Structure formats: C-alpha cells, structure tokens
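Problem 12. The chain below contains 375 residues. Write out its predicted structure in token notation.
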Amino acid sequence: MFDADYYELLQIERTADERTIKTAYRRLAMECHPDRNPGCKDSEARFKAISAAYDCLKDPQKRAAYDRFGHAAFQNGGMGGGGAQDFGSFSDIFENIFGEFMNSGQGDRRSNALRGSDLRYDLEISLEDAYQGKQIDLRIDTSVRCEPCDGTGAKAGTSARRCTMCDGRGQVRASQGFFVVERTCPTCRGLGEVIADPCDQCRGEGRAEKQRSLEVRIPAGVDEGTRIRLSGEGEAGVRGGPSGDLYIFIHLARHALFQRDGTTLFTRCPISFTTAALGGAIEVPGLDRQMHEIRIPAGIQSGKQLRQRGAGMPVLNGRGHGDLVIQVEVETPTKLSARQKELLEEFRTTETGEECPASSTFFNKLKTVWEGLTD
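Solution.
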C-alpha cells in the first residue's frame, strides 16, 4: 500500500488544491484511524499510508518533487519525511487539520489582558439643543485603571506568573470520545497568568469602581436614537487591558410647538377665518431664533400645509437645513360683537354658493341621492 499513488490514496485529482487535500485527508483519517478500528491491521496500515500521502502533498515543495519523480524523490535521503510515520491519539488529526484555529505552542498564547466592557448612556436633550448642538458634562459610574498597581493587578514590587494549569495559553483541553474540546482555564480564567500577591485596592483585577466626569460635545442635528461613540471611554480592561467604548444614545424631549421628522419641522398654526378668506401673512418663530414670515394665500382651507425652505433642522455632520412645514387650521370665531354679527348676516344674504364651491357641490350631490331614494 505504501507504493500506491498518493493522489489515489487520498482519492483526489492531481490538480486538487490545498483545501481539497485537507478535506480528503480528514475524511479518510477519521474512517480508518486505529482508535475507531481497534485490532484491525489493515486500517492501521491504511492510516499510515494516507498520513504519509497527506504529509507529502500538503507541502508545496514535497508535492512538486513527488509530481516529478514519484516515490523516488524521497528515497536514499531525498527530501525526507515521505515514509511511514507513527500515529498518536485520534486528537492529533484535529491538531494537524485545525492547528491554525487552536492555541498550540507558546507562540500562540493569549494576551493576559482583557478588554473592558462597552457602556451605554441614555441622554435626553431638548429640541433646541439638538438644533444648536451643546457641550454637556456627564458623570458616569464605571471601572477605571487601578492607580496603586497601575492596572497590573499585582501588589507593587511583584508581578504575575505564568499559569501552570494551561501553560499560559488561557485554555485547557479535554478529550471527549474522538474529539478534543477547549475550554477556559479555571485557574487563570483565560488570562494565562495568575497573581500570587494581588493588589489590596483592586484584588487583582487591575481596575476599580469610580465616578468619572466627561465633557461631551453633542453635534447639531442629532435625532432621536442617534448614537455617539466615544472610543476608550468605557470600562477599563482587566489587568491593563484596553478600555471599552462609551455609547451615548440621544433622546429628544417633547416640544411644545414643533414635531420633527428627520430634518423637517412640523407645527400647526390657527388663523382667523377672515385671514383665510382674504389672505395675509403670519410670523412663526423658528428654532434658529428668527421670525419667519409665512404668506397666507386667499381662500386657504384647514389642513393646507405651507413650507418654509431652510427653516428646519440642520443636517447632521453635513451642510444645510431641512424645511419648516406649517399646517393651517382655520378657526371659527366663537365670540362676536353685535356689529360683527350684523356684518356676517349681511354677507350671508349676498351668498350665491360660488363662495364655497366644496359645500355647494356636496349638498347638490346629497340632494340628488335623496331624490333617487324617494322615487
């Protein structure tokens, strides 16, 4: 079997790429490994053969030599490593195949410092502050680097030592049947180091609870749900690890006059029925602290919207402003003087129906429907 073609042993084409070779080896090795076939000499011999084939074909230089000279490339000391090889436990297959994903060897040890957690802060501001932008002072309860030990977690004059349980990797392995499972080292909690003499202040964590003060600039144009990220302003890391981030979520307080939709501001504005009939102008205060004159066309109806360009909210991190939209509500007078009533009665006697075409059309339709029902 050792003289068989390596490509035939792995059941692959000669043009197979590295991934195909690895997949084929993994499948065949699991089928014929001696641990799964105890006492079977054929399985043991086949496993050695496919292991030799994989050892050759996974190496570009060995594969090139094999493609040119065949098995002769590894005879008489040529290249080496092409013959039969010893096999270890079934977990060695996974070490060979998945080695790049597992922490093997001291060069792959994990960092002994863990990143701090991110923090969230919900901040409510007024619509005026969202328009203008604002500098805000925040006080946040969080973890900061321990000053006595400078974040190391060890008492001054001492230092951490490598964890003997995991040999500094932060992970320990356990065999479960045919598989190898990695889990966090229970001794060092995945840090790879243990502290024999911890700092009295932080008890080996390298950080302590403290209230911090921060100055935060809220940019103009922020909206409900806007998220502001402050890098490195979250919780301090464990034993000198990098700090997390602080995320500020913006919430807008209800405004007495305006509602907002993106960069557009909306408001309802009542006008007198004489202004609605004759036309005119009104002034509306904007969030830009300016008075905006809105022209009212004669004959305007309730619910009609008028738009003032550029009087809305600023564009966040951009240029320009949205619009201010005024929705007109025609108000019917409730308190009239005798003279006003007299004038309105005089106006009513002169009505022809053309003054209010919508109502005339409606009542004409109503009359037609009624006549159809009574026929």
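Discussion. Residues 340-374 form one domain. Students who got a different answer should revisit the alignment rule from Section 12.3.
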